[in-house]
Structure formats: structure tokens, C-alpha cells
Amino acid sequence: xxxxxxxxxxxxxxxxxxxxxxxxxxxxxxxxxxxxxxxxxxxxxxxxxxxxxxxxxxxxxxxxxxxxxxxxxxxxxxxxxxxxxxxxxxxxxxxxxxxxxxxxxxxxxxxxxxxxxxxxxxxxxxxxxxxxxxxxxxxxxxxxxxxxxxxxxxxxxxxxxxxxxxxxxxxxxxxxxxxxxxxxxxxxxxxxxxxxxxxxxxxxxxxxxxxxxxxxxxxxxxxxxxxxxxxxxxxxxxxxxxxxxxxxxxxxxxxxxxxxxxxxxxxxxxxxxxxxxxxxxxxxxxxxxxxxxxxxxxxxxxxxxxxxxxxxxxxxxxxxxxxxxxxxxxxxxxxxxxxxxxxxxxxxxxxxxxxxxxxxxxx
Length: 363
Ligand code: SF4
What we know:
With 363 residues, this protein is of the alpha/beta class. The chain folds into 2 domains: 2-138, Rossmann fold (3-Layer(aba) Sandwich); 145-252 and 287-361, Rossmann fold (3-Layer(aba) Sandwich). Helix content is 48%, strand content 12%. Bound molecules: iron/sulfur cluster (SF4). Residues 57, 59-60, 83-84, 86-87, 224-225, 281, 310, 313-316 line the site of iron/sulfur cluster.
């Protein structure tokens, strides 16, 4: 981020807290959108505990700690979406502690079945865009938004191409590798990141790796706070092929391209209302997500589900109850691991996953 700011001294950088923020608006305003995923275990929490409860998820505490220690002073703004009470509280704490920073809490519609959902989302996006225009000192023209939507469409397409390739041939690319490639996009311009993803896909195709006798699984629950990289590796090394996951969900939120036609702001709002994926942080308007999970396991040929949920993450933990019930009635095995950013017990998790893998293989 610092290198980019030095290269572009007149431009702004605006952070986006997970899970989903329409970063197209940030790019259209001329700023660099940065996804913030907390401190990832690299920061000792000391200052943040005096501002926010110690019994909340690691990402909220470590993000605040990074800010209070000055590591995020390169950011000119930060957008929090309405995902949970913790994010709501954090946005208020942030606004008080960083009064010179542009801080917005984006109210995404919860009831996406309502006929008011699209007009409401457009109004909310306009409000955010107006703030970004003031921050960046220029009005956003429809062509700016179209260009940003186009760049994001290409970026999501490249991300999905890599993920789809992993789903079809999980031995060619490890999940921790695709995760690292996608995660790099958090601090890169979309166009640069898209090119990196395409190179990664081409390189994966040339690898010539052979399939191993591993258990294919779906990994669920880490849509906001991200597990340590070692933990993702441990799941794979313990004998799983991760066919699908919800890591970094917001950065690849839409499966299909958003039309960048006559009214791009409306198109962006309509896409959120009509095409958002099922997630624990917004009401889903299609088949209940707990019913979709056994269906998805069958479609993919997944033999089980690994739940990786952040400690104290209420949206993820509430959904566990629903998911587990459905998996049990469908007789699909699962294992549930709770993680935090700074965790030393990766070997214990590896053993747990190995036991799970054996139970699936030898049942
Ligand atoms: S990890 Fe869970 S509780 Fe924490 S901010 Fe994200 S959604 Fe909210």
C-alpha cells in the first residue's frame, strides 16, 4: 500500500472490511480499494483491548490494533458493511479514534426479496459514492463506474477460473496456493491482480501433478476472518482435497459479470440484490443455504465438510446448527474447527483432520 501511495501521491487508498463492499465505487472514484483482513497473527493486541471487547473475533481486534499502531495510516478511508454487530460497533469505534479518516458504514439490504431492495441499495451506494467523491475531490462519471465494473468483472472471472480449475483437478493446485493468489489482490490494482491470476492458472495447467488418494471436501465458515495459512495447509496435508471454500468470499462475490451498460450504479445494486451468493451475513432469497449444502456436496462429489469458523464469530456459529442438522440427516460427515488469527495449535488440528479423513475413508 505504501509503495502504491508513493507511486501515486495524489491518489487515495480506501479500505474495505469484509465480507462484501462494492469496491467498484472506490475504484471509480479514483482511489485504490484495499481489502482489510486483520493482522493475521502478526500483531500483538495491546491497544485495541482498551477500545473494543476482548471477547470478540480476532479480525476486529487486530484490525483496530493495526490502526492504533499506525500501520494503516496510509489509508484515507475505510468502509464497513453491515455484516454483524461487531463490525457495526467497530465502525463507530474507528470513526471516534480516527476522526480525520473517511469512515462509512454501508447498510446493505437485509430483505432482498422486498421490492424496495433495489431502490434502497441504489440510494445507499449513491450516499457512499458522494462521500468518496468528496474524499477524492472529483465527481464520478458513468464511464468511470463502467470502467471499474469492467475491471472487477475481469478480476472475478479470473478468480473463478482458478477456483473452478481447482475444483475439477484439485491435485493441480493446492487450496492454500489459490488462497494466497486471491489474497494478494487485497492490496493490488484489479488489473495487475487479474494478470497475476491468469498467470497462476496457466502455470497450474502445466504442472503435471498426479491425483492422490485424498478425501474431497467443502470448506465452509471462513467468509470474514481468515484462518492462518498454516491451518489451510494442515487441512490439505492431513488428507483433504478442498474442492470449494468460502475464503475471501467478498472479493469474488458475484459468479457472473455485472452489466456495465447505461446505468452502471443500478446494475451494481441489482447485482447485489439478485445475484449475491448464500452467506451467513445476509439473508438469502433462494433455497435455504442449509438445504443447498448437501446438494452441493453431491454435485461436487465431496465426501464431507470441514467447518473452519472464527472464534466468537456469531454469524458463522449460528449457521453451524442449521448446517450440522442437515448434514446429519443427509449422512454426510463433517468436522468443526474453530480458529483464531494467532493460533499455535495447528498440529492438534492436523490430528483432528487426520482422524476425520480416516473415519471417512474406512467407514
Ligand atoms: S468474523 Fe464474524 S463476528 Fe467478526 S466481524 Fe466478521 S462476521 Fe462479524
